[in-house]
Each structure stands twice: as C-alpha cells, then as structure tokens.
Amino acid sequence: MAAAEEREALAGRMMPHRQPLVIEGQMRVCSACGAYRDWVVVCVRAQVWLRCPARHEGYEDRLDTAWYDRHSGPITHQHDSYEDGLRHLGH
Fold first, then answer.
1. d(CA 76, CA 13)
2. Could you read off the pLDDT of 31-88 as tens digits, one per residue?
3. Which residues of 62-90 are buried (b: 16+ CB within 10 A; e: fewer)?
4. Could you tell me the pTM of the whole model?
C-alpha cells in the first residue's frame, strides 16, 4: 500500500506540536485554560482538532488537512484507540 493510501485508511492521525501554534499571525491560546504550547494536533475526516495539555479539545476551522500534511512527519506508529495514541504522545 502506498503512503497516501495508508493515510486514507486510518481513522485519524495525531502529532505533537510542542512550540506555540501561530495561525494567521495569531498565537493560538486555549480558551479554557490559557495554554499556548504542547498541543496535540488531531486530523480526522478532513478536520483538524487541537487538544491542550489540560485535555481541553476543540475544532480549529482555520487549519485543514493540507496544513496537517505540511507540518506532520511520516507515520511512525499506529494505535488501536485515540487514548492509546494520546498516551504515546505523553498526554
């Protein structure tokens, strides 16, 4: 299976984003707790969701799958559940 086909076969993908996340010139801050770094970026069904270190989650409509693909590296692990993936990333 080619890399693009493998990505399409996955239920979702996630990656850590340790640095502050700047979107359209503004630093993204969690509206619930004020966190601004150490995000988990989750890409599911062409939507990008963010999870802060305090576990607050929200849809980020200013990011899309193309953004995710430009900023993510190769897929290095597959997990049986969302929770397993979060544990792998230290969340």
1. 11
2. 999 999 999 999 998 899 999 999 999 999 999 999 999 999 888 888 888 788 888 8
3. ebeeeebeeeeeeeeeebeeeeebbeeee
4. 0.81
What is the C-alpha to C-alpha distance for residues 70 and 66, in angstroms, rounded to an integer?
A: 6
Long-range contacts, 69-72 (Cβ 8 Å, 24+): 71/15, 71/17, 71/41, 72/13, 72/15, 72/41, 72/43
69 to 39, 65, 84: CA distances (angstroms): 16, 6, 21
d(Cα 60, Cα 67) in Å, to the nearest integer?
Answer: 11
Which tokens is 54 given?
Answer: 């305090």
